[in-house]
Amino acid sequence: MIFLANQSSEITYNQLIEDLNCKNEYSDHFFYKELYSFYLNLLYAIIQNRNLVLVDADWSLEEIYNYNVSPNENISVENSIKIKDVKKLSEAISNSNSKITLFTSGTTGQPKKITHSLQNLLRNIKINENQSNLVWGFAYNPTHMAGLQVFLQAIVNGNSLVNIFNSSRTEIYEKIKKYNITNISATPTFYRLLLPIEETYPFVKRITLGGEKSDKKLLNNIQKLFPEAKINNVYASTEAGAIFSAFGEFFKIKSYLENLIKVEENELYLHKSLLGKSEELDNIKDFYATGDLIEWIDEENKIFKFISRKNELINVGGYKVNPNEVEEILLQNTKIKNIKVFGKPNAVLGNILSAEIVLFENQEMEESEIRNYLDEKLQNYKIPRRISFVEEIGLTRTGKKLKQ
Predict the structure, then answer these.
(1) Is the domain of 266 the same as that of 359?
(2) Can you list the positions of beta strands (E) in 173-286?
(3) Dihedral through CA 258, CA 264, CA 267, CA 268, nearest 10?
(4) Interior CA angle at 316 toward 367 and 290, to 5°?
(5) Among 52, 96, 165, 295, which residue has the fewest nearby CB atoms (within 10 Å)?
(6) Does 93 share its domain with 115?
(7) Are 285 and 338 in the same domain?
């Protein structure tokens, strides 16, 4: 059975186990240039109950210096634990005492180091017969929380991973067909890249979205693209891992979390017991402010939806504009494939609202058409004053839209 299909290579589980059993050293700060070598180092350290720091392959020299990391210095291990088969591999991972340090994405400031026990990362991982024989389309950066969670879900169940991160639309569809991918977990931005719909894929059984706010139009298009798939929306963070999941845009606080979650002035707070470890998090008395704003749909039954990140609100002449609201309305237009709304500093208004728009192929629009479309749906101060049509939206290392 295939463990990893990556570019032109395919690694089986038998090859993975053989390579793991041949190792006697690992790097605790591993800068990966190739995905299989990264996973081999990660798994070996986990099996040997060693701690790891996951580092982006494209870190600059300045970032390396700031975090005082020593890339790829090998640490020898005496009497390495050996693995007999896939079942023993799953057991070794599930029982590991490793701690893994990740870095936040850095989209709102300098990345922060967060350390989790592997047991904390495994708390929402499902291991049962229903999870066997799955093929995962891997569409996240492997060194960040979402990528790590998908990897763990797949590896402890002996599933196959097909790398489609940073692949073109054509390549993604080719791999979905070639490997009969059953599960895909990715950002809303990733799924928008798959539009427009030209063919459907009924053998895909589960679609998961996370990392960004999605919208109803996108969810409807995903359901058309993958007609037999259950669509799952996940809320996770580097600080806490996966916390909520929902079928659609409405989340529910489960009973066992009610005393560990609170909302103040529409901002979501998590109890420190749900968090990993860092200098900043260790100084929190009780609850951590996530910076995520929510709206209650049914407060009595603890049902809510996410609105935006607190620091994404844009001050326009004293008004607070939620860029997600503007983006959602624009994405309802059938000519628009993707959109990014952001603020440009302005001495008078604080910010001028700006928009970058990607149109579907063979579609045309003028700025005036955009403004007329929004004029019927939004207050004047929420309508972008600067509009540009672009070929693509810039992405972060984690595959999310790059906010200005």
Answers:
(1) no
(2) 183-186, 206-210, 230-237, 241-246, 251-252, 261-264, 267-271
(3) -20
(4) 110
(5) 295
(6) yes
(7) no
Q: Indicate whether 206 and 256 sit together in one domain.
A: no
Q: Which domain holds residue 210?
A: 2-233
User: What's 235's DSSP letter?
Assistant: E
- Residue 208 CB coordination number (10 Å): 21
Q: How many angstroms separate the CA atoms of 111 and 97, rounded?
A: 25
- In the numeric block, which tokens belong to residue 230? 């259950």
Residues in the chain: 404
Tell whether the model's pLDDT for residue 203 goes beyond 60: yes
Q: Look at the block and give the residue holding tokens 């603020």.
A: 343
Tokens 């186990």 label which residue?
17
Give the separation between CA 201 and CA 181, rounded to whole angstroms: 9
Residues 355 and 378 in one domain: yes
What tokens does 195 get?
């539009």
- For the ranges 225-229, 374-378, 393-397, the one whose mean pLDDT is highest: 225-229
- pLDDT at residue 235, as a whole number: 87
- The answer to whether residue 239 sits within a structural domain is no
Number of structural domains the chain divides into: 3
pLDDT score of 194:
93
- The per-residue pLDDT for 105 is 65
For residue 387 the two structure tokens come to 């509009």
Q: Are residues 25 and 153 in the same domain?
A: yes
Structure tokens at 102: 């990740």
DSSP string, 381-401: GGS-SEEEE-S---B-TTSSB
Residue appearing with tokens 């999605």: 214
Integer-rounded Cα radius of gyration of the chain? 22
| pLDDT tens profile 139-170 | 998 988 999 999 999 999 999 999 999 899 99
Give helix 367-375 / helix 323-331 axis angle, nearest 10°: 110
Distance CA 92, CA 319 (A): 54
**What is the Cα–Cα distance from 215 to 326, expressed in whole angstroms?**
11
pLDDT at residue 33 is higher than 80: no
pLDDT 10s digits, 78-134: 999 999 999 999 999 999 999 999 887 655 456 778 999 999 899 888 888 888 899
CA 271/CA 117 separation, integer angstroms: 17
